Amino acid sequence: MSAEREKRRPVMKLSELESQLTQLQDELKKAKEQLHSSENSRKRALQEAEEARAQAASASAQARDSEAQLAELSSVEETRIFELRRLSQERDRSWQSELEAMQKQHAADSAALVAAMGEVHRLRVQLARADRKPQEAAEAQLATVDELRAKLKESEEAEAQARSLHEECKQQLEASRATIDSLLTDGSKLMDSFSLVVTELEESRAKLKAQEEEMAETSSAAKAAGESSGCSDSEAAELRSALEDVEARFQEEKILSTVETQCAYELMDQLKMESDLRHGKLAAALGSAKSEVIFLKASLFDKESELRRAQDAAKKLQDETRTSRDITADELKEQLRGALLENGQLKIELQKYESEEKVPVKSEAEAAAETAKKGETEAELRRLRVQAEQWRKAAETAMALLAVGKGGNGKVMDRGDSLDGGKYAGLYDELDDDAAARKNGNVLRRISGMWKK
Predict the structure, then answer these.
(1) Where is this region: Disordered (predicted)?
(2) Full-model pTM
(3) Residue 24's domain spans which residues?
(4) Residue by residue, what is the 3-state secondary structure of the chain?
């Protein structure tokens, strides 16, 4: 369902944009129709001016006819004409001053509207930057947290490898100790066999000594029994040779046992030294790995706290931007009301001006001057009317765009609050909101350029 909703959301955005484009096209069509009607009114005004010129020509002809009558008028009539002329000039000056005041007010209102639109654009740019900065900071902090987690995982793997190596060294040490114990057992067995050989050798020496004593006792009888003595000498020689062989074998076995025992002790000392050295190195590596794991855990906790603070700051900035946008929208509404009120007053003044009675033209020069002044005043009033209408349309368009931008940015703020929930959850919505913001900015720039023209 969520995938279908995400697929349906860009389509809804596209339909909304198409509806807005249709509305803008309708407004453009209405503006063209109003422009056409203004052109028709201008043509009618030109026709009226031509008729006024014709009337002025006829009036000038009548004035030529009445010049003779004017010469016969009394001084009282001339004074009255002079007074009427003075009143007409004063009224023209008052109308001119009012027209200049309205033009100045209109220029001031135009400048205020342009400044307000510039302020809205600047706030939009600041809001876009403010929306991008927390996201970039959050992405950087998330990358740092991922890196720290990877380092923590590597440290844990190194710690596990150090522990396995430590266990392997312990097993090697136990195996070397078992080998030393077996060598010591073999040495004790050799010593037992040597003691047996020594015992046999002592017994052989005792037998040899007994035989020598017997030989000494029987030496006196050796002369009488030569054959028997020769036999005893041969037995004694055999016994001596056997004794010498046993002693030589005993010395060799003793030397060999001593050498093997010494080698076993040296091997045991060497294995013990190597085991102690390796155990020290592994203990140091294990301690450094534990300290690095503790440091990485502390860094991870600090980064997570910084990420939470950055998210809180981004939320606060979005709330402040929302408040300032509401205030700007209220100010634009007030300015639009003032502009509409002033436009109504301008229309009332125009109607009042058109409904006033015309002063009779007394001479050809005065008629031409007054007609030209009247034409200029009417043209200026028509221009002000068209400009005020354009201003009203531009202000209404700006208010509509502000309302649309406010709704879209609200969606962005709501997604910014759930930053931890998913990193790419609202990607399509953000792209649509950015496109809408760019479109609104382009429309505002076009309205500002049209207004400057």
Answers:
(1) 28-72, 209-233
(2) 0.30
(3) 2-155+302-452
(4) CHHHHHHHHHHHHHHHHHHHHHHHHHHHHHHHHHHHHHHHHHHHHHHHHHHHHHHHHHHHHHHHHCHHHHHCCCHHHHHHHHHHHHHHHHHHHHHHHHHHHHHHHHHHHHHHHHHHHHHHHHHHHHHHHHHHHHHHHHHHHHHHHHHHHHHHHHHHHHHHHHHHHHHHHHHHHHHHHHHHHHHHHHHHHHHHHHHHHHHHHHHHHHHHHHHHHHHHHCCCCCCCCHHHHHHHHHHHHHHHHHHHHHHHHHHHHHHHHHHHHHHHHHHHHHHHHHHHHHHHHHHHHHHHHHHHHHHHHHHHHHHHHHHHHHHHHHHHHHHHHHHHHHHHHHHHHHHHHHHHHHHHHHHHHHHHHHHCCCCCCCCHHHHHHHHHHHHHHHHHHHHHHHHHHHHHHHHHHHHHHHHHHHHHHHHHHHHHHCCCCCCCCCHHHHHHHHHHHHHHHHHHHHHHHHHHC
